[in-house]
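Morning, I've got a small favour to ask if you have a moment. I'm working through a protein record and want to make sense of it properly. The fold is given in discrete form, as structure tokens running alongside the sequence. Can you walk me through what the tokens say about the fold? Thanks so much in advance, here it is:
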Amino acid sequence: MPATMPPATLHSKRSDAKPPPRYRRLGGYVMTHRTAEQWAARLLGRELNPRFRTYTTRYINPEIKQYGVQIRTVGEEICTHCMIVTQAAWFRGYVGMPASDIPQFVEGEREKRVKAFLQEQGVEDFEFQTWLD
């Protein structure tokens, strides 16, 4: 096994394969998985066991439920990015679709409340974005 493995992905990278479809647009605050892990550790009052990285969102979701949102992993690489999803809509897209071809969500009142909460929680490294799911 090579010393550096490529990141795990959720789909095949065969060159002759048609890009996998994506049927929804998600809008919300994107952060690295590491930022989410640090936030979860603050909530728990202890560092997270690296073996349970995928549980990070389970620790955060109860804290943000009051805003009618949830945090989840997004993107094609596992445990790389998380999004606090504030908006969603059906859309016919595909993996690798140019961002310019994807209608972008706009921040509204819900996002203002969630952003203020994130800042109160000490979460600093996040950005409002639209991703395909």
Summary: The chain is about 25% helix and 30% strand.
